[in-house]
Structure formats: structure tokens, C-alpha cells
């Protein structure tokens, strides 16, 4: 009897081991793992991308080089159209170089300009979305896994991603509104991956880049006692500050600004004294960008963000001024 039981358990163990190897052989199984592997690949791979970015009616082409050397990221983003503009990532600082402005550097972990934000999202902690496997497709002569990121409500946009099966790098992404209209499209025309690209790390290290621009502002007590009573699920306060209105080129004495994000979508609320004109739900949209302006309690409220107009209106109706707000 003992021998039979022992054989039985050995058989179960063998089945478990074989199943484990079988799962390993099939590779990535879930949309979440595809998305996580994509962010990891963009952070820790050496690669070069030639791509186009279409936002509304504007289409521009870029070359992006990325290297990961000694646990450090280096990157160069070059605009291939019009005036030469270059963005460099070095030691968690991003430097902007061009002919039409004075070069400057900011503290940042990534180059955020002219690249889709889906590359850097933390999908394990993303709320308000569901991830769907939409099969496979062919992009730039490469096989890609198609993943859809759909909102659980109407307060944010949806995304479709085409992820290269070989490298896990993003080949194409589309940001769409609730009517499935494409507001932004990123599309790789050529992908090149080689250890030789790591040599750009030495070239970037040798560059004399602009000194870091100080973003430190003196902390001021906000004269406006206001709150947002209800936020869409997943959105949280990322940054809050009160600065002199001249910092934003406004005529007001103080301006409150609060940045909110859900990990993919974001918006900022500005509160300031009325600027001479009372706004009544003035709205402006271009592509994914929405601006909503309303005058409440002799205060100008401006909401700017990459969210649908209905989201901005929902936020506006949930802004409340409390007793003690200085007039």
C-alpha cells in the first residue's frame, strides 16, 4: 500500500513539473504580463527606433536611441522634421537642446515628450482599466501582440498597443476617445536592437549639458480653501503647490495648482482670482488635450488635462469652496 501511495504522489509531482515546463514554453500568457514586459524592455534594453507621432492633424517623425549600461538609462530623442531639437536623458536628468530656445535641464527619470505615456505606466497598480488580449498583427514587418486597455467608466481614454513578440518593445499605440476616434498614434517604422547602441552611453557621458534648472519654489499658504469632493476611481493627487501668479504670467497674486493622475491620464486644476472676465463653462479641445474654464465664487477655475471633456466637467462640479476662503 505504501509503495502504491508513493508512486501516486510521484506521478502527481511529475505531472506538476511537466505542466510547469509546458507553461514556461508557452511564454507570456496574460495581457498584464505583456504590458509589464514591455515597460521592462523599454527601460533595460539597447535599441533604436524610427517612428512617427500623429496628434490630431500634426504628424512628426523622430529617432529615439536608448541604452542601459551599469544599471543606468541613457537616451537621445531627435526630432527629424523642421528645426533641429534634441532631448537627452543622463543620470535622471533630461536636457532640452534646440535653436529656438535656451537649452535647459530638468530632473526626470524618463523622456516624456513625444513618446506615448503607456511605455512607462505601472500596470500592476493601475486602476480604472481592464486589459484584453486582442490577438496578433503585423507591424513594420514584425509580429506583434495586440493588447487593449479599456476604461471601466467614461472618465478616461482607451488604448490599443501593438507589442513586438521578439523584443517586447512597443511598435504601435493608439489613444482613442469614447467614439473610437484616434486622438494620438505612435507607429514605429524601423526597430534596430544591438549591443553597439550601448556606445551612446559613452557619448552622452562626454556631453557638457545645461545645468539643472531649479524647480524649487517657496512654499506658500494657499489663500483658497477648496477641495475636490469626488475623484474618478484611480485618480490621486500627485503634486500640489501655491505660487505667485507672475510665475504663470497671470495678473493674480496667487495661483493654486494641483496635479492628479491615474497612471495613464492626468489633469491639473488651477485656482486664482477672477481675471476680469467671468467664464461660464468655456471649453476647448485639441486632440487628447482638454481645457475647461469656469468662474466660481469670484475665482477662476481652469482644468487642463489629457482627459475627456465630460471628465473635466465632472471634476468641476465636485470642486467646493469652504468657509474661510479669502476673498
- Care to count the β-strands? 19
- Continuous helix count: 4
Helix content percent band: 10-25%
Order of helices and strands: HHEEEEEEEEEEEHEEEEEEEHE
What characterizes the major β-sheet? 11 strands, antiparallel
Mean pLDDT: 86
Cα(first) to Cα(last) distance is 88 Å
Category from helices, strands and their pairing: alpha+beta
Strand proportion, as a percent range, falls in: 35-45%
| Shape call | globular
Order of strands in the sheet with most strands: 6-5-4-3-2-1-11-10-9-8-7
Low-confidence stretches: 4-26
Specify Rg, calculated over alpha carbons. 24 Å
Explain the overall architecture.
Helix content is 17%, strand content 43%. It has 327 residues and is α+β, with helices and mostly antiparallel strands. The protein has an eleven-stranded antiparallel β-sheet with strand order 6-5-4-3-2-1-11-10-9-8-7. It has a six-stranded antiparallel β-sheet with strand order 13-14-15-18-17-16, with helices on one face. It has a two-stranded antiparallel ribbon with strand order 12-19. A hairpin with a 2-residue loop joins strand 7 (129-139) and strand 8 (142-151). The termini are far apart.
Amino acid at each position: 500500500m505504501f509503495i502504491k501511495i508513493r508512486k501516486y504522489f510521484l506521478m502527481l509531482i511529475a505531472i506538476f513539473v511537466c505542466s510547469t515546463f509546458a507553461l514556461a514554453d508557452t511564454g507570456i500568457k496574460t495581457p498584464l504580463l505583456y504590458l509589464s514586459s514591455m515597460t521592462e524592455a523599454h527601460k533595460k534594453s539597447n535599441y533604436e527606433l524610427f517612428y512617427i507621432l500623429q496628434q490630431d492633424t500634426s504628424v512628426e517623425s523622430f529617432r529615439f536611441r536608448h541604452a542601459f549600461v551599469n544599471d543606468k538609462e541613457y537616451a537621445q530623442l531627435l526630432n527629424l522634421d523642421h528645426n533641429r531639437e534634441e532631448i537627452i536623458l543622463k543620470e535622471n536628468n533630461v536636457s532640452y537642446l534646440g535653436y529656438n530656445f535656451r537649452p535647459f535641464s530638468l530632473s526626470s527619470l524618463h523622456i516624456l515628450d513625444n513618446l506615448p505615456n503607456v511605455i512607462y505606466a505601472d500596470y500592476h497598480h493601475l486602476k480604472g482599466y481592464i486589459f484584453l488580449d486582442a490577438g496578433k498583427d503585423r507591424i513594420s514587418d514584425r509580429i506583434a501582440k495586440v493588447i487593449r486597455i479599456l476604461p471601466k467608466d467614461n472618465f478616461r481614454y482607451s488604448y490599443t498597443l501593438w507589442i513586438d513578440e521578439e523584443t517586447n518593445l512597443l511598435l504601435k499605440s493608439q489613444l482613442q476617445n469614447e467614439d473610437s476616434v484616434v486622438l494620438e498614434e505612435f507607429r514605429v517604422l524601423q526597430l534596430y536592437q544591438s549591443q553597439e547602441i550601448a556606445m551612446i552611453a559613452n557619448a552622452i557621458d562626454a556631453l557638457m549639458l545645461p545645468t539643472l534648472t531649479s524647480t524649487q519654489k517657496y512654499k506658500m499658504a494657499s489663500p483658497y480653501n477648496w477641495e475636490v469632493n469626488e475623484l474618478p476611481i484611480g485618480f490621486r493627487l500627485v503634486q500640489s503647490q501655491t505660487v505667485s501668479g507672475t510665475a504663470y504670467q497671470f495678473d493674480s497674486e496667487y495661483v493654486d495648482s494641483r496635479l492628479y493622475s491615474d497612471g495613464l491620464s492626468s489633469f491639473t486644476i488651477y485656482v486664482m482670482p477672477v481675471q476680469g472676465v467671468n467664464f461660464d463653462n468655456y471649453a476647448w479641445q485639441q486632440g487628447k488635450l482638454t481645457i475647461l474654464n469656469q468662474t466660481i465664487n469670484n475665482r477662476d477655475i481652469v482644468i487642463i488635462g489629457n482627459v475627456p471633456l465630460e471628465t473635466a466637467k465632472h471634476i468641476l462640479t465636485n470642486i467646493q469652496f469652504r468657509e474661510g476662503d479669502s476673498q
